Amino acid sequence: MATVRRVLPRRLVSTSSAGTFPKRVKIVEVGPRDGLQNEKNIVPTATKIKLIDMLSEAGLPVVEATSFVSPKWVPQMADHAEVLKGIQKFPGINYPVLTPNFKGYQAAVAAGAKEVAIFGAASELFTRKNINCSIDESLQRFDEILKAAQAASIPVRGYVSCVLGCPYEGKISPAKVAEVAKKLYSMGCYEISLGDTIGVGTPGIMRDMLSAVMHEVPVAALAVHCHDTYGQALANTLMALQMGVSVVDSSVAGLGGCPYAQGASGNLATEDLVYMLTGLGVHTGVNLQKLLEAGAFICQALNRKTSSKVAQATCKL
Amino acid sequence: MESSQLSGLPEYVKIVEVGPRDGLQNEKVIVPTDKKIEFINQLSQTGLSVIEVTSFVSSRWIPQMADHTEVMKGIRQYPGIRYPVLTPNLQGFHRAVAAGATEISVFGAASESFSKKNINCSIEESMERFEEVVKSARHMNIPARGYVSCALGCPCEGSVTPQKVTEVSKRLYGMGCYEISLGDTIGVGTPGSMKKLLESVMKEIPPRALAVHCHDTYGQALANILTALQMGINVVDSAVSGLGGCPYAKGASGNVATEDLIYMLNGLGLNTGVNLYKVMEAGDFICKAVNKTTNSKVAQASFSA
Predict the structure, then answer these.
(1) Do residues A178 and A215 touch, judged by C-beta distance below 8 A?
(2) Measured between beta carbons, which residues in chain A are less than 8 angstroms from residue B251?
(3) What pLDDT score was predicted for residue B3?
(4) Mutation test of the interface with chain A: which of B160, B264, B304, choosing the one with the most A Cβ atoms within 10 A?
(5) Residue A115: DSSP 8-state
(6) Of A162, A166, A226, A258, which residue is the catalytic one?
């Protein structure tokens, strides 16, 4: 069968970097927020609290607890104040919460939040469709939060969505991602989490994006947040680690779907990430067994199967 | 473009489609012969250049492959596409040739316990058996591919040393196998162990004669494959829809899905010659035949529920 050989741009990836990794990786567990937010079944408050407590016991250093967003938009997060007040706050573990606006920030602080997160996007169309304004306008809205957070010594994490592709714009230029990341960093965010929101990225594109961002933001302040919609999350994360990124977001049991691709999977599963990092000799501080228990717990509560392959392999039917 | 220190990935990656053999072999539902043939014919139209058709193994061991002769005779053999078959011994080899096979594979293991459990003999005994097969094959100008199972870990022994894998690979290569496929049979490998393994094997066998065969039991397959590509390997085995389970980990997934592999390779700008959409169609067909949902994330994302 005749095959047409197109001259495709080859993604150059250093073979010399195939073996260098950070010694420690901080895993930011986003299951209770990003994961649950995209699950259809509403989980009772007590269950959410138990999940977060179990994740704390598994040794995760950061557990994103909830989102102070209007219940109109995200019904799953309607109990944000109760969840934040109800969880056990283990010493040494951070429990950031999303604050999409100043009202949410104030409510979060009143409920005891000690760290917050704000969201930008690398796509104008995505921002317009999602929150009806431009990227610049969306970042301006966070000025108030950043000022108040700084005054209260509350660290702020910045998320950038659509870093490897957008459901509306398609390709996203690495320069645009770098621009938004730089803005968030200079506004005072201590860490920028770069999100492949629809999971379309592949390792070469991850590399190109990180190369651009690393010109503007130090790698120690960067995190990757890969969705596994096309099965690429772990390979993309591996590439990020090879580039020096040492903070990775993931979700227990690979919770969450993808609102842009019906039937598709969601976040990178924390269990599968921990498995890889352990195999690489990278320190995470996470107890895989306890993590698996937390995953089993929430899957049962949600009445769904786990999306973690490690959990599937370990489970005896 | 970065500095001249950076080496590129291989320009072209050959995908060896093992769905009809390794995939189906591990599926509970017995697929009728005509469906197997249709499946392989569909795969032949996707641009895949190598499709592993069946296994000339005793039907007592692997009932799914009982119709090996009919399948081999029944498929359309497109010019330019290779259709290797597994031949565990001389008897299987002769049957394969009689049925029209023009390429064969032999399966070794890097673990003594696994070898004994799987094919009821030691590694050395299995090598002697394969020597006979490969010798006969070479005599008839039939290329032989060698597989090494448990390359990154064994369900019985646990860890497997790269040295052992290298020893077995070297033996197979030395007896005349043109390519050695290193199999992470139970999917326990991670990029670090993959790198160590390849560093060892590549001291004895040139990278162009090596392939990786990664199972996705612990979700590590694509990360391991990426590592292999970075080390210069450019032949990758996969199974459409991620067919096959893992007989050693109940409920676990099996082969890396061809669709997800192609997606990554396309994104990396590497040439495969394979049409992703046609592969997804073949995947849809076989999933209906085995009555299960696809294990390919690309397929899941593309076919709206």
Answers:
(1) yes
(2) 312-313, 315-317
(3) 28
(4) B264
(5) -
(6) A258
d(CA B173, CA B176): 5
Contacts of A165 in chain B (CB under 8 A): none
Structure tokens belonging to residue A90: 């283990």
Q: Confirm whether A258 is a catalytic residue.
A: yes
Minimal C-alpha gap between B39 and chain A (Å): 17
CA distance B32 to B25: 13
Q: How many CB atoms lie within 10 A of CB A102?
A: 15
Segments in B57-122 forming alpha helices (H): 68-74, 90-98, 112-119
Residue from B24, B92, B27 nearest B57 by CA:
B92
CA distances from B199 to A233, B11, B153 (A): 25, 21, 16
CB A116 within 8 A of CB A96: yes
Calpha distance B54→B71 (Å, rounded) = 7
Say whether B51 sits in a helix, a strand or coil. strand
Q: Hey, what are B260's tokens?
A: 């997800």
How far apart (Å, rounded) are the C-alpha atoms in residues B119 and A234? 34
pLDDT in tens, B171-199: 999 999 999 999 999 999 999 999 999 99
Asked if the Cβ–Cβ distance from A6 to B271 is below 8 Å, we say yes
pTM to 2 decimals? 0.93
Among the residues of chain B, which ranges form H helices?
24-25, 33-43, 68-74, 90-98, 112-119, 123-139, 162-174, 191-201, 221-230, 258-267, 276-290, 297-302
Say which of A17, A230, A316 has its CB closest to residue B297: A230
Residue A9, min C-alpha distance to chain B (Å): 5
- Classify A316 in phi/psi space as left (phi over 0), alpha (psi -120 to 50) or beta: beta
Q: What is the ipTM for the molecules in this complex?
A: 0.93
Contact A150, A115 (CB under 8 A): no
